[in-house]
Amino acid sequence: MVEAASAPTRGIDLSELAEHALTLADERGWNDVALRDVAKRAGLPLAQLYRQCPSKWALLRAHARHVDAQVAETLEPEDLQEPAKDRLFEVLMNRFDALGDHKPAVRSILECTLRDPAQAFGGYGQLRRSMTRMLQAADLSTAGVRGELRVNGLCGVYLLALRTWLDDDSADLSKTMAALDGYLRRIERPAEVLEGRERARDVVRDTVKDSPVGRGLSRMVRGAGSDADGPVIEGEATEVPETKGAGTMGEPPVDDPHPGPGSSAVH
């Protein structure tokens, strides 16, 4: 007896299923979304979904990859002629735009992740992979120690800006833009020191000079009749040898290896 050939199953687009999962999470929260709900919403047999997607977190990994690619596609060649900070600003704002339809879901996913240490660890792995791709989309190297520092710094900037984005109810995301610009400025000058374009003592001098302590010291010295006309700390910082080497934050080295592996979460 010849067995009847089984009907071919259509391929599954995980990023499309991730959209269904996020829509459900918008409605009821991430904890209350199960794969059977996603399969039902997509009109798929649950067994077929299980074969290609072992957990709903796998859908988040697929969604992160989809957003990474979507953001990279929004950049035009002329955008890459802008300063590095401006390129990163553009990339991250495009990322927030891509996530904009699912803000309730993103908030719920983050809350669930923070309550689960295992998922938090996996989520940070995916965040690092996505931020690596964002740096590369902005034409910035992720190679070597400098690349690691860039990835770690951008992860911090993104998480801080994400917190603002979640509570930003402005139509043009003006609060998010202002916060992101400020966070990027904070890491811009340390990056210049890292690349050898600015001396560390100058950054320290300007930072202290602009602080309440620095201003107070300056007033005290001048009030005591000092003939110092400039900032009183200018000559106090220890000289740090300038670094010779590759270009600035906006001029990546030629050799740029592929980013390392990461794990799962939507960012």
From TrEMBL:
Residues 214-267 are annotated as: Disordered. Pfam families: TetR_N. Coiled coil: none annotated. InterPro entries: Homeodomain-like_sf (IPR009057), HTH_TetR (IPR001647). It comes from the Bacteria. GO terms for molecular function: DNA binding. PROSITE patterns: HTH_TETR_2. Residues 34-53 bind DNA. Signal peptide: none annotated. Keywords: DNA-binding. Residues 11-71 form the HTH tetR-type domain. The keyword DNA-binding applies. This is TetR/AcrR family transcriptional regulator. It comes from Rhodovibrio salinarum.
